[in-house]
From TrEMBL:
Gene3D superfamilies: Rhodopsin 7-helix transmembrane proteins. The keyword Membrane applies. It comes from Echinops telfairi (Lesser hedgehog tenrec). Pfam families: 7tm_4. The chain crosses the membrane at residues 23-47, 59-78, 98-120, 140-164, 205-225, 237-258, 270-289. It comes from the Eukaryota. Residues 41-287 form the G-protein coupled receptors family 1 profile domain. The lineage of its organism: Eukaryota, Metazoa, Chordata, Craniata, Vertebrata. This is Olfactory receptor.
């Protein structure tokens, strides 16, 4: 009997991050604090960059977009997770699950490509300074931004199409606190070996190659920096170190989750929690704390509003 596309399951039950009430309360408070403090900070970064003409360089243009992507990314999982802490039965509809999965990979894929664009921007600024202003003009920056959004969409739609072709006709308990590819695939009532390989190639291999490519690019930049003057060297080292920290925060958990066969490990939920909730809120803040120009602009902006 043909069962392809014969989806019967209309909802999934999320087991959640932990069964202990004490742990759930601790996580609830932690996420709430992050939302009340750091999320407004991300929007402040965006507003500061948009309102200060002195922050018109491509570096700040891309930093503002990183803050927007991360703020948007944080809305995919965390709000529903907070609501689920207050209910006994954690349920998400089939369509809601697919929608969550789509935006998770759409924004996540776009952010990975944005980090690659930011690495290219730093390479041109440090290694090819004479060509930088000519090549990295506003038209090119917007074209790169459009390309990374399109790349994130293609990456995500491939995931969704492969999952939509799977039949779900039996178990509907997801051993996680949100919908993601590894857990959803395992609930399909058919052989998923080929689909898993395609998913690993689309997410895992792509993530690993981007990660290695970024490390190589920053290694080239740092080698070039050592031949620069002391002042330029310190500024470039500060910027590149920040970028490398974000790369590890972004790609480390993603490599752990997507580059291996979809088998459950004890650390999966903890890694997913930091990957989808904590790190996205922290990334732009880390950039800002190490960038004197943005910090000075934020102080001036806040000072003007306090005076008013």
């Amino acid at each position: 009997m043909e069962i392809r596309n014969s989806t019967v399951v209309t909802e999934f039950i999320l087991i959640g991050l932990a069964q202990s009430q004490d742990i759930q309360l601790l996580v609830f408070v932690l996420i709430l604090i992050f939302y009340l403090i750091i999320l407004p900070g991300n929007f402040l970064i965006i507003f500061t960059i948009r309102s200060d003409p002195g922050l018109s360089a491509p570096l700040y243009f891309f930093l503002g977009n990183l803050a927007f992507l991360d703020a948007s990314y944080s809305f995919i999982v965390a709000p529903r997770m907070l609501a689920d802490f207050l209910t006994e039965k954690k349920v998400i509809s089939y369509k809601g699950c697919i929608t969550q999965l789509f935006f998770l990979h759409f924004l996540g894929g776009g952010e990975g490509l944005l980090l690659a664009v930011m690495a290219f921007d730093r390479y041109m600024a440090i290694c090819r300074p004479l060509h930088y202003s000519t090549l990295m003009n506003p038209r090119v920056c917007y074209a790169l931004l459009l390309a990374l959004w399109f790349g994130g969409f293609v990456h995500s739609i491939i995931q969704v199409v492969l999952i939509l072709r799977l039949p779900f006709c039996g178990p509907n308990q997801l051993d996680n606190f949100f919908c993601d590819v590894p857990q959803v695939i395992k609930l399909a009532c058919t052989d998923t070996f080929v689909v898993e390989l395609l998913m690993v190639f689309n997410s895992g291999l792509l993530t690993l190659l981007c990660f290695l490519g970024l490390l190589v690019s920053y290694a080239v930049i740092l080698c070039h920096v050592h031949r620069s003057s002391s002042e330029a060297k310190n500024k470039a080292l500060s910027t590149c170190t920040t970028h490398i920290i974000i790369i590890f925060l972004m790609f480390g958990p993603a490599i752990f989750i997507y580059t291996r066969p979809f088998r459950a490990l004890p650390a999966d939920k903890v890694v997913s929690f930091f990957h989808t909730v904590i790190f996205p809120l922290m990334n732009p803040v880390i950039y800002t704390l190490r960038n004197q120009e943005v910090k000075s602009s934020m102080r001036r902006l806040l000072g003007r509003h306090v005076v008013c």
